Amino acid sequence: MEITVPSLLRIKPNALFRIGKYLRKEGFFKVALFYGEGIKDLFGNQLTISFASSEISVVFEENVSSNDVDIILKKSFSLPDKIDAIVAIGGGKVIDVSKYIAFILQLPVIAMPTSISNDGFASPGASLVVNGRRKSLKAQIPYGVIIDTEIISKSPKAFTMSGIGDLLSKYTAIYDWKLAYRVVHENVNDFAVLISKNAVESMVNYNIKNIENLEFLRLICGCLVMSGIAMAVSGSSRPASGSEHLISHAYDMVAQKPVLHGIQVGIATYIISEVQNNPEKEVIKSVLRETGFFDYVASNPLIRTDFIKAVNLAPTIKNNYYTILSEKENIDTLLTFIEHDDICKSVLK
Questions:
Q1: Which of 19, 77, 275, 324 is least surrounded by CB atoms within 10 angstroms?
Q2: Same domain, 226 and 109
Q3: CATH number of the domain enclosing 246
């Protein structure tokens, strides 16, 4: 099996100003540039200067507002010929759209996230709308990931908290994957498990867990990249996504006001770790407390009734996807825990 991982990785302050230099070094002189909504107004001038100084031609440029797969397909085949690479700057939507276009056209894609709300910017998948419903589709893993930590540090606090929640979920996802191996004999890729576990433990073991610290932010960025690579190695989302992600996807479907994916995943990870009696459950709780994640969510709580609906719906989200929630008694245990746990009472209202 051939495994593709990013060849270009830059995580540093002011990386935005060097993007032209990075592209030129890789031999990408003609690019299609896709912006997330509002991103061109913030960073368009800096990108123009960086591209011009390195003689990079932008042969196509667009602000991405839709992630509907039918629109993406039409867009893909309307791009000019002789593009060396696709460059995406912004949030998850524009990066997912760009990865899917790159997959269709078999072009390298350079992802430049302006926030770190989850590990999707470095993964080989894309969350898109198919026939009116969100669906995860295979996409091109980025050839390059460029992250300007100065930009990340100025993004809303919620996005970084979301990234922390998504990263911690690797503990519960790995548990579910190994549980599926024991119960239904699903194959587990040990190397993907190692990468995913090392990614989360790098953050857990870092002595400063202050989201205003640039080095901590740089570390989180690198850990999320490694999580994306774990998915590429395994050929599935299993090393990064388990029952906690099913709850988040279900919450998206039933909640009147869903919040950031990683925020939902972080709360679900805490709860699932208790139901699993996960060996790392105290670590998960400690990191969510120390980073201020619990305090942040308590000030912006999820809707308790919607969360409970999501828990009951979660096992139906993916077919043939065994997790701790595949057994009814574990759902009952989870709901009892939500009812009595003090942290749950503060983050679910």
A1: 77
A2: no
A3: 1.20.1090.10
